[in-house]
Amino acid sequence: MEVFAVPIAWKFPRPAATAAAVLAMLAIAAPASAEDVEVDVELVLAVDISQSMDEYEQQVQRDGYVSALVSEEVAKAVAFGMTGKVAVTYIEWGGVGEQFVVADWQLIDGPQSAEAFANRLAEAPLKTVQRTSISSALAYAGTLFSDNGYKGARQVIDISGDGPNNQGGVVTASRDVLIAQGITINGLPLMLSDGASWYHLPNLDHYYEDCVIGGPGSFVVPVRSLDGFADAIRLKLVLEIAGLMDDTVKVVPAAGRAAVPCNMFD
Length: 266
What we know:
This protein is an alpha/beta fold and 266 residues long. It is built from 8 helices and 7 strands; from the N terminus they run βαβααββααβαβαβα. The chain has helices at residues 17-23, 55-69, 72-80, 111-123, 134-143, 171-180, 204-212, 229-242, and strands at residues 6-7, 37-48, 86-93, 99-108, 150-161, 184-189, 219-220. The strands form 2 sheets. It has a 5-stranded mixed beta sheet with strand order 4-3-2-5-6, sandwiched between helices. Strands 1-7 form a two-stranded antiparallel ribbon. Helix 6 links the parallel strand 5 and strand 6. The chain is globular and about 45 Å long.
């Protein structure tokens, strides 16, 4: 199984210029109401459905989330938390204005509620869109925490994708606004391509590390084969739900590799 998790340094907000451009796109989280249900984490699963993913790959991806959500490992991760509850929503995304809620917010507090949420995913039809706007997907995902009925100790966006941002503005601008709000972004780069597409990146995991993820305990889990898909998703959900990643600042040595330009396809 070619899967590993890489803890990455916190992505701190850069001085304002680019972040200000997308600030208006994101709803600032309102104070929790007395009726909000306390959970260990509010988790947005944001899944790429761009045309570079064929129908078979999309089905493997969907099945991976379904099987992970009802797995024993995820059930134990939920039970591990202070409240034993998490809130999850599942969205699919492509280009600018192409974000779709497949399964709205649901409380998961045990096998029965996890199975109900997984069934909603399994029954939803697949769809495909053309472009890849990670920046728009992040901005949209950030709005979903406001007035959702839950109050999480952590707010996390889990974003998957098989290519770099190629529409909708600089991805780091959306990322930095979310980090400033205390939201953590984790990445699931899908490194399945043979390099035929014009925007293929051989080291997509590096792009996600430098340009997409950020916040306390953020990390990347690359997927390098379809066989490893379900295992990667399960590992990622366990880490996110249980909050097992260290929140201390981690340093990636500058000499390790060259930084990836974050605006190469904008």
